[in-house]
Amino acid sequence: DAGVTQSPTHLIKTRGQQVTLRCSPISGHKSVSWYQQVLGQGPQFIFQYYEKEERGRGNFPDRFSARQFPNYSSELNVNALLLGDSALYLCASSLVGRGADADTQYFGPGTRLTVL
Amino acid sequence: AQKITQTQPGMFVQEKEAVTLDCTYDTSDQSYGLFWYKQPSSGEMIFLIYQGSYDEQNATEGRYSLNFQKARKSANLVISASQLGDSAMYFCAMREDYKAAGNKLTFGGGTRVLVKP
After folding, report:
1. DSSP-derived 3-state class of residue B42
2. Is B102 on the interface with A (CB under 8 A)?
3. Among A35, B66, B102, B105, which lies 20 to 30 A Cα-Cα from A44?
């Protein structure tokens, strides 16, 4: 079975621009979460979406937004890019529910965003 | 206070030896989950092992085992018989009570492991 896929792999933008990152979850997974990983740090939670609704939001400004589509894929949008937005953006999918199998999040390869 | 603390920024380990990666956590929830992920230089986060707060036995997955000490709030990862391919960053993460926190994972700062031949 295919794992979590993300596109694009790499992206270079300039300050003030807008970017859209895409994620397709593992087949059968209905929850998608987004994380930002700045170089040298652990990932930071941005959003969780389940059944097309936002179920959690991390401590990120309103420039960050996301949505989930009927096929459970998701997009992360970042407006008015800042230099500090340069990071690896990771998408993770899970079944959602209780128990180990449902809780485990499986990550995609990430999108590396560079803001110049 | 940090929710997940990994005190070892980096470690060297000899091939075929075992290594223990430390992780302590802080939560007031009764129901939570603890995870370990491996991140090679390619960037992808690879799930290794899970321990639920109500699990009485330590989790094991192949060469990975989790030493769960609930009273001490520690969840150390043990990698047995280290291989060169184990060289990577290792992250400890926690998911708190789902009703309050959803599926959010909180990560530690990571430990870089370098396996020497």
Report:
1. coil
2. yes
3. B66
